[in-house]
Amino acid sequence: QVHLVESGGGLVQPGGSLRLSCTASGFTFSSHPMSWYRQAPGKEREQVAFITSTGAITNYADSVKGRFTISRDNAQNTLYLQMNNLKPEDTAVYYCKTFGLPDWGQGTQVTVSS
Fold first, then answer.
1. Do 63 and 74 form a contact (C-beta atoms < 8 A)?
2. Torsion, CA 93, CA 99, CA 102, CA 107, rounded to 10
3. N- to C-terminal Cα distance for the chain?
4. Virtual CA dihedral for 65, 66, 72, 78, nearest 10 degrees?
5. What are phi and psi of 77, to 5 degrees?
């Protein structure tokens, strides 16, 4: 059974930083590409970052490019999202997702506000 647990969200001022974590179990983490998605109130869920199974290739949405960094630790079955220079428009619930599997975690709330 796939289990994804996101953590690390919170309230931060504009310009601040947060590091999100996603702990995975129930599947072979190191064999799967992974993504971070987010969903803001009243908006559709959108993919913000993608990483291949080895971590060799990453991709980002234009809205976060240069500010967010996705990474992974396959030995720890953990996915990360380092978010710097946060903006109010980054406010959303953030989710991790396994490429090719339908399961979602519960998400972690990120609120950027002064």
1. no
2. -20
3. 40
4. -80
5. 50, 45
Placement of tokens 């190191």 in the chain: 30
Task: Please give the order of strands across the beta sheet that includes 92-98.
Answer: 10-12, 108-112, 92-98, 34-39, 46-51, 58-60
Cα radius of gyration rounded to whole Å, the chain:
13
Instruction: Output the tens digit of pLDDT for each of the chain's 114 residues.
Output: 899 999 999 999 999 999 999 999 999 999 999 999 999 999 999 999 999 999 999 999 999 999 999 999 999 999 999 999 999 999 999 999 998 888 988 999 999 999
**C-alpha separations of 51 from 12, 70, 96, 110, 111 in Å:** 25, 7, 11, 21, 24
Using CA atoms, how far apart are residues 62 and 84, in angstroms rounded to an integer?
15
DSSP state of 90: G
For residue 79, which of 2, 20, 3 has the smallest C-alpha distance?
20
